[in-house]
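PROTEIN DESIGN WORKSHEET
SECTION A - STRUCTURE
LENGTH: 247
TOKENS:
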């Protein structure tokens, strides 16, 4: 079980809550948080659902800290360069724009006053999250809504399954990883050297399919903890009325 999920006493995961529990949670903090991601290759050492596993666990941490409820993970990614890789599935942006808009409409109908959409799959924001919020607004939606990527928060970096995403899962849900696949250490990249291992010539390499700083030696639980806590703090600030410049 994930780091924050293991701390739950009063349930915050919507799919596990009864109506009375939902009503009580909403009366305390009328906010709902939705993790988005993709099913896609994240290296030999990470699960294909890393994007949502990461975002969902971070939003559970937010709910435990400030209240609100967490919607089930939305495992639909759009674009990003891994669509043709094994175990990777992408969908059209238009379909997801409609889904996001209709979800927001339903949240507002049920009395939520704020919705946070966090995507662990970075292309989702530009592909359909912002467009979904815009369509919701055009239809008359008034609820506060924020679409955000973790690496848009000051002090948080991002990548594709390399140092930062690997580190995040090392903190958030390490049981899903097999770090033994990263044990080969003969060609470790530098601490600030960003590398693209997506070329087919890298197949079989411990970092095949990764983009970013080499996770071997550079990914740590502490890096993942810092990123998650910074994100949670920043989302709390937004809930309390502080806006994001890019929102």
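SECTION B - SEQUENCE
RESIDUE ASSIGNMENT:
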């Amino acid at each position: 079980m994930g780091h924050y999920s293991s701390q739950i006493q009063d349930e915050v995961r919507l799919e596990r809550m009864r109506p009375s529990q939902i009503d009580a949670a909403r009366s305390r903090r009328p906010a709902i948080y939705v993790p988005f991601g993709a099913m896609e290759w994240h290296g030999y050492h990470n699960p294909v659902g890393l994007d949502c596993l990461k975002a969902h666990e971070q939003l559970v941490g937010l709910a435990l800290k400030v209240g609100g409820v967490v919607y089930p993970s939305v495992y639909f990614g759009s674009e990003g360069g891994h669509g043709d890789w094994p175990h990777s599935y992408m969908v059209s942006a238009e379909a997801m724009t409609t889904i996001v808009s209709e979800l927001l409409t339903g949240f507002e109908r049920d009395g939520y006053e704020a919705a946070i959409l966090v995507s662990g799959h970075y292309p989702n924001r530009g592909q359909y999250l912002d467009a979904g919020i815009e369509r919701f607004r055009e239809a008359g939606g008034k609820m506060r809504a924020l679409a955000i990527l973790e690496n848009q928060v000051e002090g948080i970096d991002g990548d594709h399954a390399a140092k930062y995403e690997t580190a995040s899962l090392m903190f958030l849900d390490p049981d899903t990883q097999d770090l033994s696949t990263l044990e080969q250490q003969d060609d470790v990249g530098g601490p600030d050297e960003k590398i693209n291992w997506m070329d087919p010539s890298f197949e079989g390499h411990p970092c095949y399919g990764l983009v970013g700083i080499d996770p071997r030696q550079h990914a740590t639980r502490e890096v993942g903890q810092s990123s998650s806590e910074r994100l949670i703090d920043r989302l709390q600030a937004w809930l309390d009325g502080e806006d994001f410049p890019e929102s």
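SECTION C - NOTES
The chain is about 35% helix and 10% strand.
Helices lie at 19-28, 50-66, 93-109, 123-138, 163-172, 221-239.
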